[in-house]
Amino acid sequence: MVLKTPHEWSAETLLAKAQRFADKMLERPRDDWEFGFWSSLCLEMIVRAAVSKASPAFLADGKDWSNLAFALDQQSSGNKQSPKSIDISEAAARANALYPDFNREMVGFCALHFQRRNAELHSGRLAFDALGTDWLPQFYAACEPLVVAAGSSLIEIFGAEEAKTAGLMIQAHKDEAAKAVKQAIQAHRTVWENKSPEDRQGLKDLAVVSSTKAVGHRVTCPSCGCIALVQGTAAGASKTAMENDVIVTRTPMLPAHFDCKACELKVSGFSKLNACGLGSTYTSTSYEDPADYFQIEPELRPVEYEMDDDNNEP
Predict the structure, then answer these.
(1) C-alpha–C-alpha distance, residues 171 and 140, integer Å
(2) What are the structural domain ranges in the chain?
């Protein structure tokens, strides 16, 4: 019996290549430029493997149908000899949409690391020289949810010893975020408690007025207890439907920024928001007049609808 060779865009083959790059990475000292360079190639394969695990078709460049045919392992006269996949920034965005644990903060780190890789390959800049190792906790924190999504583990990719070190780095990264945000909350709470009752009431009223559901997701401030807002980024595909003669679009959102108008506490970054209990996803709901949605000519329109967006729909 002839065994079929795994598809080159499959999660299996991409993880195998990630492991190959990880081996090259770990051959070098951590402060060596090649350690950082090989890590960037390893990270790209891990991102692509996670996307492919959902479907290799998600890696196909949609500008030419033959790329999709290749991803689905369909042979036809239109198939290219050199099929084209999406670029890595789009792959990271799709991984974020597919796997909420791979959050926007991690996507941001990946974008920066891939920029370094591109500079190293396509310019005279020595992007990984003197980089140090401060980036390693973020690197492993980004890798962990992706390798799990792809059906693997840090141990399989990096080996048991390095995976143990990576786990310690990931935990330290999370603890540092929690420590920083708790200090900020306590500092703002102290200032808030030293204000007069009249001043606190005035600021509380201001927070209620300014924290509208159309602007962000309403939550309780962990510092002063007033109404405040969380704003976020899309964490998945939007769903649109007609409800009561209005076009309603609902989008799952991942928290990215918190702002309290009363005590002026601000928190940015999912890891910090999660550390202070503000990391829960929410739904952003928008409403649109069917006439606008379907681009109906003004003179043919029935009644016009006006409804504010709602980031606190039950």
Answers:
(1) 10
(2) 11-75+84-158, 195-300
**What pLDDT band is residue 81 in, cutting at 50, 70 and 90?**
low
Closest among 43, 14, 61, 35 to 111, alpha carbons compared: 43
- Of 218, 229, 217, 214, nearest to 307 by C-alpha is 214
Dihedral angle over CA of 175, 98, 238, 207, nearest 10: 0
Nearest to 44 by CA among 23, 20, 9, 14: 14
277's torsion region: left (phi>0), alpha (psi -120 to 50) or beta?
left
For residue 143 the two structure tokens come to: 């890798």
- pTM (predicted TM-score): 0.71
CB under 8 Å to 242, separation ≥6 — which residues? 248, 290
296 Rama class: left (phi>0) / alpha (psi -120 to 50) / beta = beta
DSSP letter (8 states) at residue 277 = T
pLDDT of 253 reads 83
Read off the pLDDT of residues 240-278 as tens digits, 9 standing for 90 and up: 888 877 888 888 787 889 999 999 999 988 888 888 888
CA distances from 82 to 13, 134, 309 (A): 17, 38, 45
- Amino acid identity of residue 108, one-letter, is G
Distance CA 296, CA 314 (A): 31
* CA separation for the pair 262, 219 (Å, rounded): 13
Residue owning tokens 């603890």 = 175
What does the pLDDT look like over 175-185, one tens digit per residue? 888 888 999 99
In sequence order, the β-bridge partners of residue 268 are 257
Residue 207 to residues 203, 215, 288, Cα–Cα distance (Å): 6, 13, 28
